[in-house]
Design brief:
Surface antigen domain-containing protein; elongated
């Protein structure tokens, strides 16, 4: 006995994995909109449901990745805030889902003290791969001390690495 109700979710999952994370909301919106239009016989309803599904899926993905990026920035800032100038310290982030786990190394390049703030210019790496295939991408940024600890102060590495999700 075939189960047509299970085909659509399986097809959506396979398509999302093949299409990549950035097109997941579009694919989900198209699938739900098509299913709603076919099921109701009303194309306008299908378009409304498809657009709404796309918006919610994209919002959820952006929220999740922003949380991941924030935890990455906090781990780097924590490691750099405790390090003396020039010393290499490891940093890492492990998420509940095994997606987006990152690690690398951070070094404090210099300390900048002004009457307004104490800041640190740091160099940090993000590792990809393992063993002989290990590569490191390096970034430079600034951290400043706040009441709650060291926080990200510059958007330059975030623009390249994390898009506009600073």
């Amino acid at each position: 006995m075939r189960r047509p109700a299970l085909r659509l979710p399986a097809l959506l999952l396979a398509t999302a994995l093949l299409g990549g994370c950035s097109s997941f909301g579009d694919l989900l919106g198209a699938a739900t909109g098509t299913a709603a239009a076919a099921g109701s016989g009303n194309p306008a309803l299908g378009v409304a449901i498809g657009v709404s599904t796309n918006a919610v899926a994209n919002w959820g993905w952006r929220r999740l990745t922003r949380r991941w990026h924030t935890s990455e920035q906090e781990a780097i800032a924590l490691a750099a805030g405790e390090a003396p100038i020039g010393e290499a310290r490891p940093w890492q982030v492990r998420h509940t889902l095994p997606i987006g786990n990152e690690q690398g190394e951070v070094r404090v390049l210099r300390v900048i003290e002004t009457p307004l703030a104490t800041c640190r210019e740091i160099l940090f790496s993000v590792e990809d791969g393992e063993g002989a295939g290990l590569t490191r991408r390096w970034y430079v940024t600034s951290l400043c001390r706040q009441e709650t600890g060291w926080r990200w102060a510059a958007a330059e590495p975030a623009t390249e690495r994390w898009g506009s999700l600073q």
